[in-house]
């Protein structure tokens, strides 16, 4: 930053249907992994803020849970958190998946945006462009822009990076003038305890199948910084049923060991120091209805 330059700062909400690529885009923009990324839908549960620098602009990205039709209390709280992220933002970016196009879910989101976006700029980012033909992209862009007056449209691949620099440059230029909101070297405003829990939950989600990933949560119970520079982290995996505990543990503890190893390795790389990770699995049949669990996930229990 030069002495006579004008700094900019503000919040950018990433919204869209589940699995549209919001978390992948957030990690791409920040340049580090701050949000859980899996092939399964509805994996982001909280509003995760990742911080990126673009010239003299500081962009605070809010990666919201995917917007979908809620069924349970947890679902309703996640959708409320998503729209809460939109209401706090200076700029909104709607991600849609090129292959899925203008779905009923996207149309529902557009209807909501017309009510709440006001004068704030809304950009369209058509993601996963490497998976469809160019003529399909042009037709889709025209179709979606006809449904909503977007300030700008970007064709991107969050996974491969195509078009992401252009989107980032536009966002940096559009943000309001003002002082930076965070230190220049900070990449997220989530507590490290929550990031650690999210990393372990991601490994569980990748390891397990069907509905179980949505029936469990991970909490960091304790964190000890040791004199030798390492960190000792104790986490609890809460599941809703006895049968789920056996699935998480696996045959002779094989599954939990594999999850622990993968989470420990990623945490060590993220923290740039050795990590001793200890996982415990506990059954709490009503955890999906416990206010304390929602608070730990950064969600509002009353929104459910």
From TrEMBL:
Region (G1): 16-23
Residues covered by region (G2): 42-46
Span of domain KH type-2: 208-285
Residue ranges of domain Era-type G in the record: 8-177
UniProt xrefs under Gene3D superfamilies: 3.30.300.20, P-loop containing nucleotide triphosphate hydrolases
Region (G3): 63-66
Any one GO molecular function term: GTP binding
GO biological process, one term: ribosomal small subunit assembly
Superkingdom to which the source organism belongs: Bacteria
Record GO cellular component, one term: plasma membrane
Keyword Flavoprotein: no
Compartment(s): Cytoplasm; Cell membrane
Main function: An essential GTPase that binds both GDP and GTP, with rapid nucleotide exchange. Plays a role in 16S rRNA processing and 30S ribosomal subunit biogenesis and possibly also in cell cycle regulation and energy metabolism.
Annotated protein name in UniProt: GTPase Era
Protein source organism: Paracoccus aurantiacus
């Amino acid at each position: 930053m030069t002495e006579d330059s004008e700094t900019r700062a503000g919040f950018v909400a990433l919204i869209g249907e589940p699995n549209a690529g919001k978390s992948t885009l957030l990690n791409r923009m920040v340049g580090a992994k701050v949000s859980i990324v899996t092939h399964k839908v509805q994996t982001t549960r909280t509003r995760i803020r990742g911080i990126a620098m673009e010239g003299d602009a500081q962009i605070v990205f809010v990666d919201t849970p995917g917007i979908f039709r809620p069924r349970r209390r947890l679902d309703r709280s996640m959708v409320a958190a998503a729209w809460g992220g939109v209401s706090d933002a200076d700029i909104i970016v709607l991600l849609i998946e090129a292959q899925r196009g203008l779905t009923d879910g996207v149309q529902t989101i557009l209807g909501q945006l017309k009510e709440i976006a006001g004068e704030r700029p809304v950009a369209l980012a058509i993601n996963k462009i490497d998976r469809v033909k160019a003529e399909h992209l042009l037709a889709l862009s025209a179709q979606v822009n006809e449904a909503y007056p977007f300030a700008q449209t970007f064709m991107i691949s969050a996974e491969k990076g195509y078009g992401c620099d252009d989107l980032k440059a536009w966002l940096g230029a559009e943000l309001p003038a003002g002082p930076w909101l965070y230190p220049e070297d900070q990449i997220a405003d989530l507590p490290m305890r929550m990031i650690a829990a999210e990393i372990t939950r991601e490994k569980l989600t990748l390891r397990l199948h069907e509905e179980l990933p949505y029936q469990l949560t991970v909490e960091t119970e304790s964190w000890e910084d040791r004199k030798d520079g390492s960190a000792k982290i104790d986490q609890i995996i809460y599941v809703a049923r006895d049968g789920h505990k056996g699935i998480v543990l696996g045959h002779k503890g094989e599954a939990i060991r594999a999850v622990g190893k993968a989470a420990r390795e990623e945490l060590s790389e993220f923290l740039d120091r050795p990590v001793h990770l200890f996982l415990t699995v506990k059954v709490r049949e009503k955890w999906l209805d416990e206010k304390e669990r929602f608070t730990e996930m950064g969600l509002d229990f009353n929104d459910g």
